[in-house]
Amino acid sequence: MKDFWHTAVVMAAAASTAVIGPVVVAVALRDETAPDPLLRLWCNNLLRGAGVRSEVHGLERLPAGNAVYVCNHQSNFDPVFIFASLGKHLRFVAKRELFKIPIFGAALRATGMIPVDRSGSERDKEALAHAVEAVKSRVSILFFAEGTRDPNGLLRAFKKGAAVLALQAQVPLVPLAVAGTKDVMHKKSLLIHGGRPAVLMVGEPLATAGMKLEQRDALTERAHAAVADLLGAANARVEEMLHG
Q: What pTM was computed for the model?
């Protein structure tokens, strides 16, 4: 019954998109950073509704300026948890289907989220080309670099988009890892398992200054190794929270 209660509360919070979405679109026309407090409030309401017991480690490692962030992907709660936690002007690379959802999709587009097909199409390349100028001048961008989620939370190989963008923009590539969110909301399920722990780990930024695009494979491998280490620590902390 507790899970059904948390599910109902989260669905009610999500339904507030119908109210918040048009406001987000309106204020984004004035200033793309203006919706951030509203978006963060919405994310925090979802986390509270799910009763998530969250911990964040390594915020002191965040670079002062813009960066590209690269993270594993466990749940639909990942972007909610990350945006609420980092306190940065941050936008996401998201699958294009999300932009077709009424109101929600308009809010995504108005706030500068980046739609991709995840197929390496010309549209994807064009979207990432626009993102280079954006991350150079005004916003940090996050990639869930695995492309798709493993239902057991295992780390899959990374696609190269995050490394390519960081190299082209000459900004740091920052590894992140989330753990515990897969047990809050399972893949292909709407049921919320309330009161679960979730942990976000921030790693040391990987410098890209002076590096060439030809080094994207090596940078992708370094990022994957860093996220793997962080994920191991995050999983261990989730277990401590569950059984400590």
A: 0.90
Burial of 148 (0-12, 13-18, 19+ CB in 10 A): exposed
State residue 20's pLDDT score. Answer: 84
Angle at 192 between CA 159 and CA 99, to 5 degrees: 45
- For strand 140-144 and strand 173-179, is the pairing parallel, antiparallel, or unpaired? unpaired
Euclidean distance between CA atoms 152 and 102, whole angstroms:
31
> Rounded to 5 degrees, what are φ and ψ at 68?
-105, 130
- Name residues of the chain where pLDDT drops below 70: 118-121
Backbone angles phi, psi at 43, to 5 degrees: -65, -45
Instruction: Provide the pLDDT for residue 55.
Output: 98
Q: Which of 124, 116, 85, 32 is nearest to 234 (CA)?
A: 85
* Cβ 143 vs Cβ 70: under 8 Å: yes
- 130 Cβ neighbours under 8 A, 6+ residues apart: 114
pLDDT number for residue 73? 95
